[in-house]
Amino acid sequence: MNDPVNKEMSQPMQDGPAPTGLAVSRRRFLAGAAATGGAVLVASACGNDDGDDNGAAQPGGGPTTTVNAGPDLDVAAAAAGLEKLAFDTYTSAGSAATAGKPGAVPPAVANFVTTAASQHQEALDRWNQGPDGRRPPSCHRAPASLAPTVTAEFGKVTDVPGAATLALRLEDYASQAYQSVLPNLQGADAIKLAAQINVVGQQRQAVLRYVLGLYPVGSGPVKGTANPAPVDFAPANPRPALITG
Amino acid sequence: MATDNGLRLDETAFDVLMEESRDLHVDAMRTAQASLPELNDIGRSRGRDIDTDEIDRFNGARRSPLAQLGHGVGSASARTLLAGGFGGLISAILATPVRADTALDVQILQTASSLEALAVATYGVALGEGPNRANAPAAKAVAAITDAGAKGTVAAFAKETQRQHSEHKKAFQEQTTALGGRVQDAPNPKFEPVVSNADLSTAAKLVDFAATLEKVATDTCLLNLAMLADQRSKGIMASVMGVEAQHLATLRAVGALLSANATQLIDVPFPAANIPRLPAAAGSVATPNALHAVSGPELIAEPTSGAIQ
Mind listing the pLDDT tens digit of every residue in chain B (309 residues)? Predict the structure, then answer.
């Protein structure tokens, strides 16, 4: 297992609209913070990291605000970003299917897309309630470092197997991220939530693998392209190849 | 590949698929191997005598989820949190005292070993490797699958899953030894009678029962994550949980196809031409909930259940 904290989860997540007009500063998740269990002063567990993290107020916002948040909250915000990315992708797939872009969509595939979108939405909502349901990270955007890659790959999809392959890469990416942070989470609620979501993500992979003609138990679409090095469950920054293959 | 109940499998196709698809399982096992030196250090530091302070720390850590949920505070909200779901489950599990002469992590690993041993034995019975060989109801149930492709797929899945459980058991046993504990090689005594008394006379019943066992394993791993203290042990438990979850998903899907009399759709590698023939339910049967629903205490292997007495 890569030590100490999932690097994917450490990737910046673009924070959503500041609900109260407060600006939040931006930060990179501190690798190792969760492992040490120490309190981390962060400005936002859901910020991006696009170079303007200089303490300045963001456009339209007030002064930079810092809050005292634990590492589990940082993970919660990062996880919410990943769930948003997956939700957006499945929603786009559903819209494309309705428009007939990939041709006739088999009923099982249509049901899978609808179910997966709904489940990722629920996972997003749960993370945004905070691991304990009381401290909302309020992350409502997909990771800026990954969303363009996924969007570009989605634009290349022309048929159902292509869509399923992209979905499998995305699920695999998320599963590896969860797998990596699980040992480092501190609170029972966060552990439970991450594990419950990860189990279902692994299971969606099994279904996708089966439909794609692969053995259902495994990781990623094809060995050697989509998978990171063995034991290294933590995708490096930001490893778009995991999405593009 | 030939199984003891006489099934002949398409070795080439399955071998290729399994070889390229073992990553998740292989990753779990490599993680386990990598953790052994560190666990050996922990085991050596404990010495021959159990450190009672350490037991206290473990038990304290074990109770911390309850503390976070307000256990002992007595507030109405705390009682509500503990009344059901995860809090209630943890509360029920922790109601059973952990043996004071064995560290909690060792008990968890021994119990995990015992669940894997039970799974190995159960799949073995279905493969005709049990005491009754091909006459066992489970083996007969597999042999009675009329569609040759489905029969081969079910048998191959059982064989591969049995192998993975065997490796999980070995990994947990090595972790146990590294921590200075005694290796548990016997099936879990809480669930062994359940297996012995199960009606496995049809393929559908067999698959459903195997799914139940996989869910016990998945849920137990999930709860162990909240009780283990060592990060590497948590990592191994999380990795194994992922593999068991995929076993469970596959069995749910296969069970649904058996129940729908669509055995011709049980096929690995699955032909793309058959995708339109899959029933709509195939898209959701393996993942009924957005958050995996953990069973009650009766279907959890609590740490004491497989600990060596």
Answer: 444 443 344 445 445 544 544 566 666 677 667 767 766 666 666 654 444 554 554 555 445 444 433 333 333 333 333 334 455 555 555 555 555 567 889 999 999 999 999 999 999 999 999 999 999 999 999 999 999 999 999 999 999 999 999 999 999 999 999 989 999 999 999 999 999 999 999 999 999 999 999 999 999 999 999 888 888 889 999 999 999 999 999 999 999 999 999 999 999 999 999 999 999 999 999 999 999 999 999 999 999 999 998
ipTM of the complex: 0.80
Q: What is the CATH T-level fold of the domain B23-271+280-299, as seen in this structure?
A: Ferritin (1.20.1260)
Q: Quick one: how far is CA A66 from the chain centroid? A: 24
Residue of chain A whose Cα is closest to the Cα of B292: A196
Q: A203 to chain B: which residues are within 8 Å by CB?
A: 245-246, 248-249, 286-287, 292
Cβ pair A217:B164 closer than 8 A:
yes
B27 vs A contacts (CB less than 8 Å): 219, 230-231, 233
Q: What is the pTM of this model?
A: 0.77
Please state the CATH superfamily assignment of the domain spanning residues A71-244 in this structure.
Ferritin, core subunit, four-helix bundle (1.20.1260.10)
> Can you give the residue ranges of every domain in chain B?
23-271+280-299
